Every structure is written in structure tokens, then in C-alpha cells.
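hey can u check if this looks right to u? its 342 residues, i copy pasted from the old doc so theres a chance i mangled smth
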Amino acid sequence: MQEEFYISRCIELARKATGKTYPNPLVGSVIVHNGKIIGEGYHHKAGEPHAEINAIHSVADKSLIPESTIYVSLEPCAHYGKTPPCALKIKELGFKKVVIGAMDSHDKVNGKGRKIIQEAGIETVSGILEKECTELNKRFFTYHEKKRPYIILKWAESADGFMDRDFRPCPISNPLVNQFVHQIRSDEHAILVGTQTALNDNPSLTVRNITGTNPVRILIDFDLKVPADFNMYNNEASTLVFNSVKESVESNIRFIKIGKENFLSDLTDALYREQIQSVIIEGGRFTLQQFIDEHLWDEALVIKNENLYLENGTKAPEFPFVPAKIETFSDNTIGFYQRKIL
């Protein structure tokens, strides 16, 4: 129970950096001496010190470290990147014990960090709250294990199942839900729409209503129909435009050529190469239905305005699944869906 308590605290710390560490994982660390926490840290941003190093730096009396246990939510790294390997630092300082939440499936780590620590004669325990630690880094693990981003579908619909009124945009979600949605945007790496949504709504796809980080914007526009003066092309965020016309870089906009034949497969491959770890699909019905039909999604958020009846317009996607939970936001509900891998 003690080990679970401290790993739970590691998870709590790691979550503070949600959306800010790409392409690195979320990691928290706690250092304990004689039942007392003497150091804490988490990874704030790629290129900056890792969780273990921040926790070590926070220890006031470094002489206690050889008699202390360091807890970390993810296996300490074993390779040189923008920072030195944490496993070597743990070995150098001679911790009494290391407790790991989940192992790191990244091929540069994948057991190598634990091996370094064990071979130094340090007691090592792993798999503590493993499910929770894996869930914390669902984006990171999906990206490295499935070679594609973690995919979240999102749309809003009326009580009678329409996404617009008479095929024209109309507000469906309330201000509470809008604020929640912008928090989700800030937490994820990228956000994607198709041509028709961009033309109809002229969205910015940036974070508003809260303080947060703009996601990478992704536009699927095979024939480059979206005008260059639309909001998608402003300088507020990095933007990838998948098209069949050109390959070029223009300021913060990158045009990437892609074929229509194996579109979804080629798209996810390209997003993997661009190191996009998670993406919200906010496209219209056509784009969303493509992902649904190909079973290419991990989560879905379905917003429903229980008091709004639109009677005619674009029908919401066919989505015959049961939500894991439903939360109420005044007159709106959000159904949270989790894809089960059979």
C-alpha cells in the first residue's frame, strides 16, 4: 500500500504537465526517506530535466539519498537525448531502492533503464499501479506501440441527432461545454478537420476561454479549396495541410502531399512521421464516419444538447456504442466512449 500511495502521488505530479511534454511522456517522481517525502518532481517540458532529476534537485539534504527510495511513474530513461540518462544518475547517487510504475515500451528504453539500476545492485520493483501509469501515458504508448497517434473523435449533436440546422452552422454546445472542449484542445497534441468543416465554419482551432497551448492544426484539403485568408492559415499555430497538389513549407504552414486511395492509412503513417502523438478529430460527419467505419479511434466525446431540436440538417455519425460514462453540463451532456480492443 505504501508503494501504491507514492506512485499515485507520482501520477498526480505528472498530470500537471499534460499537453506540454510532447514528444516525451508524462512522468512524476517522489523521493522518500524513512516514510517521509523529501523530494518531488515532474517532467515539465521536452528538453528540460526529467522528473527524477527535478525530484533529486528538490532534496534539501542530499546525504539522505543513499538511504532513500525513489518512486517514478515510468521506467527511468537509459539513453542520451537532450538530457543525460536518468538511470545513470540514479546509479551514480546510489539510491537504496527504485520503485517503477510502468515500463517504457519506447525501443530506446524498454527495460534498459531498469537493467542499469539492477546491475548497480539497487533493489528495483516495477509494475506498481501499472494500469494507472499506462493510462497516464496512453498517447505515448499508442504512438510507440501502434505507430500512430492516439485518436479522439469529438462532435456535438442536437437531441434529435443533427450537427447543424438546415446544413448551416448553428451553436449546439453551451458555454460550460465550450470551456471544457478548449481544455481538451490544450491537452492534446493536434486537432483535425476536413475541407467542408473548414469552409463551413472557418474555425481557428486554437485554445480560447482558458489559458493553454494551441494544438497543431491539421487540415485535410485534397484540392486546396480552403482560401488562404481563412483562419486555418493564420499564424496562431503550426498547421499541417494534407493535399494532393503540393509539398512545401510556407511560414507556419506545411503542405504534405497524400493520395486518396489509402487515405486513412497514409494519413496515420504521415502523422507518425511528424511525431504527432494524439489528435482530436473534429471534422464533419464524412470525416468522422471514415474513422468510425475503419475502427480507427481510441476515445470519443459526444456532446448532446438535450433541449435542442434541429429537425433537418447534417445527421450525426452512426456510432452504435455505449458510453463508459456520461457527464452533465447544464442542458448539455457529454458521453465519454472508450474503444475496447477485441
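The longest strand covers residues 150-158.
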